[in-house]
Amino acid sequence: MACNGYSRPMTKWEYATVPLLVHATKQILDTWGEDGWELVQVVPGPNAEQLVAYLKREKQA
Fold first, then answer.
1. Potential cystine with 37: which of 22, 32, 45, 56 (Cβ 3.0-4.6 Å)?
2. What are phi and psi of 38, to 5 degrees?
């Protein structure tokens, strides 16, 4: 990749982990999404009734 003398500042992110209840997943994700959080991944939680969401958003200067 050639350098043309211009550089963009690197994007900085902040992250959150959020417990999700299977009966309220959409509501929880919608609430976080309204605050600018983007869903990265959902993984199983500590029990069968729970999932854990990993979210990110651009860090404000």
1. 32
2. -110, 130
User: Which amino acid would we find at residue 12?
Assistant: K
The residues, ordered by sequence, that sit 6+ positions from 29 with a Cβ below 8 Å of its Cβ are: 20, 39, 53
- Predicted TM-score of the model (pTM): 0.78
CB contact burial 26-54 (16+ within 10 A = b; e otherwise): eeebeebeeeebeeeeeeeeeeeeebebe
Of the candidates 26, 28, 20, 32, which has an alpha carbon nearest to the alpha carbon of residue 57?
32
17-46: pLDDT as tens digits: 999 988 899 999 999 999 999 999 999 988
The total number of structural domains that make up the chain: 1
Residue 40 belongs to what domain range?
13-58
